[in-house]
Design brief:
Elements lengths: L3 H9 L5 H8 L37 H11 L2 H11 L4 H14 L3 H17 L5 H12 L6 H14 L3 H9 L2
Helix pairs in contact: 3-4, 5-6, 5-9, 6-7, 7-8, 8-9
Length: about 180
């Protein structure tokens, strides 16, 4: 039976027969395809021991492992490269990076990074008030200043209050 869609396809694409057009677009009578009609790139070889979705590993380890080592060794460039490879850092890892920035660089770059961290902190601290968010921002900005210990203690108390335990542990280690 000819439908309006079939007629339109045949009139607009006269060189492509209906069955071959259907195979090009992966149409199989309204059924879901057993496999994707288009798979981008070559097939990847995966180990039978590793489930799919496992992150790629180089001889230096995973990107997260490289990030952790760079933070421990106080190597800003390596930490930044690993963070970019990870794409998204946890709130605690982002704080570690901000603390490293506070130690290694001052000024605009730290200010932008800590502002982004603060925004994530406020989103994760469910129920935080505007006054507490302002206090957290002031304390976060002072992590690069002369009253770092007081700022870290303030953030630690807020993190504990809002059950952001990983953030509190980072601030405990920074003492």
């Amino acid at each position: 039976m000819m439908t309006i869609h079939t007629i339109m396809l045949k009139t607009h694409l006269p060189l492509v027969s209906e069955p071959s057009f259907r195979s090009l677009v992966g149409w199989n009578g309204g059924q879901l395809p057993a496999r994707p009609a288009f798979s981008p790139g070559p097939a990847r070889l995966t180990s039978s021991r590793c489930p799919s979705g496992v992150e790629n590993m180089t001889s230096q380890g995973t990107a997260h492992g490289r990030f952790q080592r760079a933070i421990r060794r106080r190597h800003l460039l390596a930490a930044e490269m690993a963070a970019r490879e990870l794409g998204v850092l946890s709130l605690a890892d982002a704080l570690k990076f901000c603390l490293l920035l506070a130690d290694m660089e001052s000024g605009e770059r730290f200010s932008r990074a800590i502002a982004r961290w603060h925004a994530r902190f406020v989103l994760d601290a469910v129920g935080i008030t505007a006054d507490q968010a302002a206090l957290a921002l002031s304390a976060a900005e002072e992590l690069a200043g002369p009253i770092r210990e007081l700022a870290a203690e303030t953030l630690r108390q807020l993190a504990t209050q809002y059950r952001l335990d990983a953030v509190a542990r980072v601030l405990d280690r920074d003492r």
